[in-house]
Specification:
Blueprint (H helix, E strand, L loop, with lengths): L8 H18 L1 E9 H16 L14 H8 L1 H11 L1 H12 L8 E7 L3 E9 L4 E3 L16 H14 L2 E4 L9 E10 L2 E14 L21 E7 L13 E15 L5 H7 L7 H33 L2 E3 L3 H21 L4 H8 L3 H28 L6 H14 L4 H8 L2 H20 L2
Antiparallel strand pairs: 1-3, 2-3, 4-10, 5-9, 6-7, 6-9, 8-9
Helix pairs in contact: 2-4, 3-4, 6-8, 9-11, 11-14, 12-13, 12-14
Length: 440
């Protein structure tokens, strides 16, 4: 059954269930590993030595409890379980060595046998599913053309002139768009409330940064004028005590300022500080190039996504649910890091959005499924096109990236995942470039 990243959520779930059923037969392997004899006995001995150090038994000092007394009080089974836990990694390595399997996700493991003579593990190892890419050439998909209009350039110049505008004191009344420098204090039932006072506060009229009605009632006032503003806080105001409350703000206008629009003159270009930009002509060219570069990047990303989506319609693959779940975990971790950079914890995010971890995971399910699908698809095309990256090419890329990130090469590779990951990343990028050539 062909899989696409744009199917409805219901279809995605149905396809995943189908993939899970088929994969059980094809690429989910159950491997048993048995550890016995001297190796098992030594593991039990080590488990006892570790437990003996902290075991508390009446009549014996800590670290001096005899083996038979320990087993009588805590049971031999406790030592077997500790020993079995310590040997899991060793048993897993044996499972991989003996089976020659290459897992694509972390395996699950169960104890299938445990007694005084041996421990037996049952590993469920999931390998890469078979991928059949039926068509990936000649799809005639092209990127959109990037154009920048004079209107867009004028709009951006307007933003720059606004950003670098100056405030000058004006005579006369406060108007919309002016900046009123005010003293204010708010009162509820005649009593000043917390957070309702400010001095020489610069308030842009029309910015809607104060509660509704506040800025409107300043229009028409002059410098030196005082006024009482009768207002009502919104129902959904963040401070419970003030929500829907009727209040009075005593306000004094100290100064009225208006924005003075800048001109495209020598002084403006000096303030702008753009290298080589000292005229309107050069500014327009700089803005045009900047908009074009940004749009080209957006168009390129959209083009690649469209290309991969179209190719995926001609792909047959049975994707194990475990691969999707692992990708969801990666996306969740990345999202949490992004939130932390903004100073927001996941718990706080859930409160703000009135959602749960389950909701977030559900939102990421479709993206995770598409990521896994595209990865498997690109790996297969890499193989079909015999695309390879040499170790020397990977080393050169690692050195270049390390310099860009201002890191030592070894430290960069450690964080990136090693030279193999550099090779893999370059191969996938080269494959995408190949696909673009094959589908012009």
């Amino acid at each position: 059954m062909a899989k696409t990243a744009k199917t409805a959520e219901k279809e995605v779930k149905q396809e995943k269930e189908t993939a899970k059923t088929k994969a059980t037969k094809k690429n989910i392997h159950e491997i048993k590993v048995k550890i016995e004899g001297q190796e098992w006995q030594e593991a039990i001995d080590k488990a006892f030595n570790a437990k003996q150090k902290t075991a508390k038994v009446d009549g014996f000092r800590k670290g001096k409890v005899p083996r038979d007394i320990y087993e009588k009080n805590f049971g031999k089974e406790s030592l077997w379980l500790d020993a079995a836990e310590k040997l899991i990694q060793e048993a897993y390595i044996k499972a991989l060595d003996e089976s020659k399997l290459i897992p694509v996700v972390q395996p699950s493991v169960d104890l299938s046998g445990l007694n005084e003579d041996f421990v037996e593990y049952l590993f469920k190892i999931i390998t890469k599913p078979e991928v059949n890419v039926k068509k990936y050439k000649g799809l005639k998909i092209k990127p959109e053309k990037v154009e920048v209009t004079d209107e867009e350039i004028n709009h951006e110049i307007g933003h720059l002139l606004e950003r670098y505008s100056e405030l000058v004191v004006k005579e006369g009344k406060v108007e919309n768009g002016d900046v009123a420098v005010i003293d204010f204090e708010g009162f509820k039932d005649g009593v000043a409330f917390d957070g309702g006072k400010g001095e020489n506060y610069s308030l842009e009229i029309g910015s809607n940064s104060f509660i509704p009605g506040f800025e409107d009632q300043l229009i028409g006032m002059k410098a030196g004028e005082e006024k009482d503003l009768n207002l009502t806080f919104p129902e959904d105001y963040g401070v419970k005590e003030l929500a829907s409350a009727k209040v009075v703000f005593k306000v004094k206008v100290n100064e009225v300022k208006q924005k003075q629009t800048r001109q495209l003159d020598e002084e403006f270009f000096e303030d702008l500080g753009m290298d080589g930009v000292d005229s309107e002509e050069k500014l327009r060219e700089e803005i045009k190039n900047s908009i074009k570069a940004q749009r080209e990047m957006e168009v390129e990303n959209k083009y690649v996504d469209t290309l991969l989506e179209e190719i995926s319609k001609n792909v047959e693959v049975d994707i194990p649910e475990e691969m999707v779940e692992e990708e969801i975990a990666h996306l969740m971790e990345r999202f949490e890091q992004q939130m932390k950079m903004q100073g927001i914890s996941l718990d706080l995010y859930y409160q703000f959005t009135r959602s749960t971890e389950a909701d977030l995971r559900s939102q990421m399910e479709k993206e995770a499924y598409a990521n896994v699908l595209y990865r498997l698809m690109l790996e297969e095309i890499t193989k079909l096109e015999d695309i390879k990256i040499t170790l020397e090419e990977a080393e050169e890329e690692a050195e270049k990236l390390a310099k860009e990130y201002k890191m030592e090469k070894e430290e960069f590779l450690k964080q990136f995942g090693g030279i193999d990951m550099i090779q893999y990343d370059l191969e996938i990028r080269k494959t995408i470039e190949k696909l673009k050539e094959l589908n012009k």
